[in-house]
C-alpha cells in the first residue's frame, strides 16, 4: 500500500486543521448567499464550528468504542457504507474548491487583470497537484512551517484595519430570524466540518486516537474562531448591503483599510501569502478525499486518486467560472445545499449495521 | 536527480510578472474628475503626472479631458489621446462636479467594477464647483509636483480644524448604497468663482471652498463640505457648520471657533473632543450628548465669570447644532448619521429595509446637550 500518510505529531496535525479551518471559514464563503438576508456571518461561523466539533467528538467516541484510528475503520467492508463514503469524498472536493475559486477570482480580477482564469490556474494547479500527491506528512509539516507567518499576516491585516471598524455596520443583527441563522450554520458545514473530516481520514498518521482528538480540537477551535473574528472584522468594515455584492470581501478589506497606513500596497504580498495557505488547505482536503477513496475501495496507491481528485477540482472550478445561468445556479446550490453531502451519510457511517447471521452449515 | 527536476520545474514559476511593462511607458493619473459634458453625458478630466527621467528633468503635470458615456469609454479615449499608457494605480483623488452631483448622475458613471481600471477604493472624494479643469490646474504648484501635500492637507484640515470632511470612496459608496447616513464631501473650487451659500444661513465667509478671500500661488481652495441626500448633492455647509456636524458623527478631533459674546466682543477658543458623542434614539426622539474641552485663546483674560461663560458657550453650541440639524432635515440629508442608531433597533434586515427611515428622519426631534470643560490658554493654538 502506498498511501503516503506517514507519521506526524499533534502540532503538525493541529496546524493543518487550523489553516484549513481558517481559509475555508473566511474564503470558502459566497457573499451573495451569506449576506443576502443580513449579516450574521460570525455567529453562523461559531455555531458551525460547534456543530462540526460535536460531529468530530462523536466520531472519535465511536472510534474508541469500536477500535480504529480513522474514518475508514468505521466504513469497513460494508457495501452500504462504501457507497456512503462517496458523498463525503465529494464534500471534501467541494471544500477544496471553495477557497481556491475565491482566490482565483481575486487574482484575475484585481492583480493580473489582463489574464484569464485558465492562465492563472496554470500557475496554481502544479502546486496543488504536487502537494496532493506528496501526501499527508509533507502537507502537515508544510502547514507547521507556514502557520506562524500566516497567523502574523492575518493579525497584521486585522490590526491595520482597526481605524476603519465601526460597530454600527454589524446591525441589524438578524436575531429575529433564528431559523435563518441555524439554516446558514447548517449550510456552512461543508466549510466548517471539512477540516475535521479530512483529519479523520488521515487519522492513522497521527499515531494515536487521543492525539488526533486534541489536534482536531485545538486546530478547529483556533482556526474556526480566528475565521469568526475575521468575519466580525469584515462586518465592522462593510455593511451587509455592500458585502452581498462583494465577491472578494477580504481582499477589499485589505485594500480599503490601508489608505493612510504604512502597510499600503502590502496587500498583494499578503494576498499571495494567503494564496499559499488556500492551496495547502485545498491539497489537504483533496489528499484526504483520495485516502478515503483508496482505503474504502481497496486501491493500493493513493497518487493516481490524488491527481484525479485535484484534476476534478481544478476542472470544476474552471467550468463553474463560465458566466451562465446554469453555472450560477449550480454554484448557488453548491454553497447553500451541499451540506447534505455530510449531514446524510455521516451519521449512517457512525451507525453499526447488524450483519446477517451466517446460515448454519447443513450437517 | 528528482530534486533537481523539481527545482527546474519551480523555476518556471519565477518568470516574473505576467505582461510586464517598463515604468517609463506609463503616465500616472493623480486626480480623476467628472462633470457634465456638452455633447456626451460626462466630461472626464484627469490630472496626469509624467515622471522625470533624470534629476534635472522635473515631474510634469498636465490636465487632459475627454467626453464620454461611461468611465471605460473615457479611459479608452484618454489612452488613445495620450502618448503614454495611462495608469490609474496611483490615483488618489476623485472630484465630482457639482452640476452632475445635483442630479445624482455621477452614480451611473461610478458604477464600475472595483479594480478595473486599477482604481483604488481608498480614493479621497471631493465635490467641486465646475469646471474641474480649473480646479485641477489651480492645484498645480512647483512646490508640490506630486500633489501629495495638497491631498494630505485635505485630511489634515479635517483632522486639525474640522473645517472640511475627509471622505474616502468606500465611505462615499456606503452612504450612497445604504440609508444609515448621508455623504458629506470636502468642497473645493477655483478661487475666482463664487460658490453656493451655506444651507444653514448666517455668515458664510470664511471657510467655504472657492470663496476664500486669499491671494495664493494655488488658485483652488478646499474648505467646507458638500452634503448629499442619497446620491444627490443638496447643499453646502461652511467650515463652522461642517465642524459641528463632524462633532455628532465623531469625526471631529479639534478645531477653533469664534464666539460672539453678549457684550458684542468676540472670543476665540480651541475645541477638543473629549469622548465619543452619546446618541440615543427612541420613539422618534434622539438625544445627543457631546463632551468637549474649550481652551480660550483670545482674549488673554476670561471675558466673563467662568461658569457663566461655560453656560453661555454650551447654549450657543447647542443652538447652532440644532440649526444645522434643522437645515439638514430640510434638505433630507442625514449627514449626522442618526440612521446608524435607527438600524440598531431592528432584528432583521428585511424589517430595516422596509423601514422608510428618511421619512422618519425628517420629523425626528433631537435635543443636543453640550458639556464643555473650560480652560484658558492651556493648550495653545
Description of the molecule:
The complex is a heterodimer of chains A (363) and B (381). Chain A has 363 residues and is mainly α. Chain A has one domain (10-350): Amino acid/polyamine transporter I, CATH 1.20.1740.10. Helix content of chain A is 74%, strand content 0%. Chain A has helices at 10-27, 31-34, 41-66, 71-75, 79-111, 117-134, 136-160, 178-187, 189-201, 209-237, 240-243, 249-256, 267-297, 302-321, 325-337, 340-343, 345-350. In chain A, helix 9 crosses helix 13. The longest helix of chain A has 33 residues, at 79-111. Chain A is globular, with a radius of gyration of 20 Å. The N and C termini of chain A lie far apart (41 Å). The model of chain A has no long low-confidence stretch (mean pLDDT 89). Chain B is of the alpha/beta class and 381 residues long. Chain B folds into 2 domains: 24-239, no CATH class; 253-381, Nutrient germinant receptor protein C, domain 3 (GMP Synthetase, Chain A, domain 3, 2-Layer Sandwich), CATH 3.30.300. Chain B has 12 helices and 15 strands. In chain B, the strands form 2 sheets. In chain B, strands 1, 2, 3, 4, 5, 6, 7, 8, 9 and 10 form a 10-stranded mixed beta sheet that branches. Chain B is globular. The N and C termini of chain B lie far apart (73 Å). The model of chain B has no long low-confidence stretch (mean pLDDT 83). At the A-B interface, helix 6, helix 11 and helix 12 of A face helix 7, helix 10 and helix 11 of B.
Task: Label this structure with key terms.
heterodimer, A: Amino acid/polyamine transporter I, 17 helices, 0% strand, B: 381 residues, alpha/beta, GMP Synthetase, Chain A, domain 3, 2 domains, 10-stranded mixed sheet, 5-stranded mixed sheet, 30% strand
Amino acid at each position: 500500500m502506498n498511501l503516503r500518510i506517514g507519521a506526524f505529531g499533534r502540532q503538525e496535525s493541529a496546524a493543518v486543521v487550523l489553516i484549513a479551518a481558517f481559509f475555508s471559514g473566511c474564503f470558502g464563503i459566497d457573499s451573495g448567499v451569506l449576506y443576502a438576508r443580513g449579516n450574521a456571518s460570525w455567529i453562523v461561523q461559531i455555531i458551525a464550528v460547534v456543530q462540526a466539533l460535536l460531529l468530530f467528538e462523536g466520531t472519535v467516541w465511536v472510534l474508541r468504542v469500536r477500535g480504529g484510528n480513522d474514518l475508514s475503520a468505521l466504513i469497513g467492508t460494508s457495501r452500504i457504507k462504501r457507497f456512503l463514503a462517496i458523498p463525503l469524498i465529494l464534500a471534501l472536493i467541494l471544500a477544496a474548491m471553495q477557497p481556491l475559486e475565491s482566490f482565483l477570482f481575486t487574482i484575475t480580477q484585481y492583480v493580473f487583470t489582463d489574464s484569464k482564469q485558465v492562465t492563472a490556474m496554470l500557475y496554481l494547479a502544479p502546486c496543488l497537484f504536487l502537494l496532493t500527491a506528496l501526501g499527508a506528512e509533507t502537507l502537515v509539516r508544510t502547514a507547521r512551517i507556514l502557520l506562524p507567518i500566516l497567523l502574523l499576516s492575518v493579525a497584521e491585516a486585522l490590526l491595520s484595519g482597526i481605524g476603519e471598524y465601526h460597530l454600527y455596520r454589524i446591525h441589524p443583527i438578524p436575531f429575529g430570524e433564528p431559523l435563518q441563522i441555524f439554516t446558514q450554520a447548517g449550510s456552512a458545514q461543508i466549510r466548517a466540518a471539512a477540516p475535521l473530516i479530512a483529519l479523520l481520514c488521515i487519522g492513522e498518521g497521527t499515531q494515536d486516537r487521543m492525539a488526533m482528538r486534541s489536534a482536531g480540537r485545538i486546530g478547529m477551535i483556533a482556526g474556526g474562531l480566528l475565521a469568526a473574528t475575521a468575519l466580525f472584522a469584515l462586518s465592522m468594515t462593510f455593511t451587509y448591503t455592500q458585502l452581498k455584492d462583494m465577491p472578494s470581501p477580504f481582499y477589499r478589506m485589505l485594500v480599503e483599510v490601508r489608505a493612510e497606513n504604512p502597510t499600503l500596497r502590502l496587500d498583494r504580498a499578503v494576498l499571495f501569502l494567503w494564496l499559499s495557505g488556500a492551496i495547502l488547505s485545498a491539497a489537504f482536503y483533496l489528499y484526504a478525499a483520495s485516502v478515503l477513496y483508496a482505503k474504502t475501495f481497496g486501491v493500493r496507491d493513493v497518487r493516481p486518486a490524488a491527481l484525479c481528485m485535484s484534476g476534478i477540482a481544478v476542472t470544476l472550478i474552471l467550468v463553474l467560472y463560465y458566466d451562465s445561468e446554469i453555472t450560477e445556479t449550480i454554484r448557488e446550490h453548491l454553497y447553500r445545499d451541499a451540506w447534505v453531502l455530510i449531514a446524510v451519510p455521516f451519521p449512517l457511517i457512525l451507525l453499526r449495521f447488524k450483519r446477517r447471521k451466517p446460515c448454519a452449515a447443513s450437517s | 536527480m528528482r530534486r533537481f527536476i523539481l527545482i527546474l520545474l519551480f523555476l518556471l514559476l519565477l518568470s516574473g510578472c505576467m505582461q510586464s511593462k517598463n515604468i517609463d511607458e506609463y503616465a500616472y493619473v493623480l486626480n480623476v474628475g467628472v462633470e457634465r459634458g456638452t455633447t456626451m453625458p460626462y466630461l472626464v478630466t484627469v490630472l496626469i503626472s509624467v515622471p522625470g527621467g533624470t534629476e534635472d528633468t522635473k515631474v510634469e503635470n498636465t490636465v487632459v479631458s475627454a467626453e464620454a458615456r461611461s468611465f471605460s469609454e473615457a479611459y479608452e479615449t484618454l489612452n488613445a489621446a495620450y502618448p503614454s499608457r495611462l495608469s490609474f494605480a496611483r490615483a488618489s483623488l476623485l472630484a465630482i462636479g457639482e452640476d452632475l452631483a445635483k442630479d445624482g448622475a455621477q452614480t451611473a458613471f461610478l458604477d464600475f467594477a472595483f479594480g478595473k481600471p486599477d482604481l483604488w477604493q481608498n480614493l479621497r472624494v471631493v465635490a467641486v464647483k465646475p469646471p474641474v479643469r480649473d480646479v485641477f490646474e489651480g492645484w498645480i504648484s512647483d512646490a508640490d509636483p506630486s500633489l501629495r501635500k495638497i491631498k494630505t492637507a485635505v485630511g489634515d484640515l479635517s483632522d486639525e480644524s474640522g473645517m472640511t470632511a475627509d471622505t474616502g470612496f468606500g465611505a462615499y459608496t456606503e452612504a450612497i448604497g445604504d440609508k444609515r447616513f448621508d455623504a458629506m464631501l470636502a468642497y473645493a473650487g477655483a478661487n475666482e468663482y463664487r460658490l453656493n451659500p451655506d444651507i444653514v444661513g448666517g455668515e458664510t465667509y470664511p471657510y467655504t471652498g472657492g470663496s476664500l478671500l486669499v491671494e495664493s500661488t494655488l488658485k483652488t481652495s478646499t474648505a467646507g463640505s458638500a452634503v448629499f441626500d442619497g446620491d444627490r448633492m443638496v447643499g453646502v455647509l461652511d467650515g463652522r457648520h461642517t465642524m459641528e456636524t463632524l462633532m455628532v458623527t465623531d469625526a471631529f478631533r479639534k478645531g477653533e471657533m469664534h464666539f460672539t459674546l453678549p457684550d458684542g466682543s468676540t472670543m476665540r477658543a480651541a475645541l477638543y473632543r473629549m469622548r465619543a458623542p452619546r446618541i440615543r434614539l427612541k420613539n422618534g426622539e434622539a438625544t445627543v450628548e457631546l463632551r468637549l474641552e474649550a481652551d480660550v485663546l483670545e482674549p488673554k483674560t476670561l471675558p466673563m465669570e467662568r461658569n457663566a461663560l461655560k453656560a453661555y458657550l454650551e447654549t450657543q453650541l447647542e443652538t447652532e447644532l440644532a440649526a444645522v440639524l434643522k437645515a439638514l432635515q430640510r434638505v433630507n440629508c442625514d449627514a449626522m448619521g442618526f440612521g446608524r442608531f435607527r438600524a440598531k433597533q431592528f432584528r432583521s434586515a428585511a424589517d430595516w429595509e422596509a423601514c422608510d427611515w428618511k421619512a422618519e428622519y425628517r420629523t425626528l426631534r433631537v435635543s443636543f446637550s453640550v458639556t464643555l470643560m473650560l480652560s484658558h490658554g492651556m493648550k495653545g493654538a
